[in-house]
Design a protein that fits this description.
- The chain is an all-alpha fold.
- It has 11 helices and no strands.
- The longest helix has 22 residues.
- The chain is globular.
- It starts with 5 loop residues before the first helix and ends in an 11-residue tail after the last helix.
């Protein structure tokens, strides 16, 4: 999913639609959709367990209990939107670097975003000089360590705002922002909207 182009994803979605719509009975169509959703969900949870901290996978790949024609169309549309949504997140979860050390650092940061993950701490963990780590990270990924960490925190904040009952101040503290106001400014800069008005579905 994260390595394919958008065109390849869309081609796969058309194949899925043809496969589903080959059944005449809406109930059988919906059963196929449910099986597809289940397989995608299991694949993502197995291959990318950290995704649960950033994306409401269970919600994205859920299916309605009913199975009318309109339900089938809506389920197919939701599946399409969910896969394309995840594809847009690909740069965050796929390094594009063949350097194993950088890959390990990248996925360590993704899996530990609720920790401080300061450059000096991560460098110490991987027995590297902070300056060297910073230079290597930028060279291999095309993004600075600081910018990537900020992106991770903002995506994690999006998830927490849309899928938990936590207050903005609690999320800011959880993600190691010095104060709530700085978090609000950072979030608005990243998403174009304030945390209070954020809607994960949009």
């Amino acid at each position: 999913l994260f390595k394919n182009s958008r065109e390849e994803i869309e081609k796969g979605l058309k194949a899925i639609e043809s496969y589903v719509m080959s059944e005449k009975d809406p109930l059988e169509r919906m059963q196929k959709i449910r099986k597809i959703n289940s397989r995608i969900l299991q694949s993502l949870l197995t291959g990318y367990p950290f995704l649960e901290s950033y994306v409401p996978l269970e919600t994205l790949f859920s299916s309605p209990d009913t199975a009318s024609e309109s339900d089938v169309r809506e389920a197919l549309l939701r599946l399409s939107r969910s896969l394309l949504f995840l594809h847009r997140k690909a740069p965050l979860f796929h390094t594009g670097s063949a350097n194993v050390q950088v890959q390990n650092i990248w996925f360590y940061m993704i899996g530990n975003v609720d920790e401080s993950c300061r450059l000096t701490e991560t460098a110490q963990r991987f027995f590297l000089n902070p300056s060297y780590l910073s230079s290597l990270f930028k060279k291999e990924t095309g993004i600075s360590y600081k910018a990537f960490l900020q992106d991770l925190r903002m995506e994690r904040a999006r998830f927490l705002l849309g899928n938990t009952e936590k207050k903005v101040s609690e999320i800011a503290s959880q993600l190691h922002f010095t104060d709530s106001e700085y978090f609000r400014k950072s979030f608005r800069s990243y998403t174009g909207i304030s945390p209070a008005k954020f809607d994960y579905e949009k």
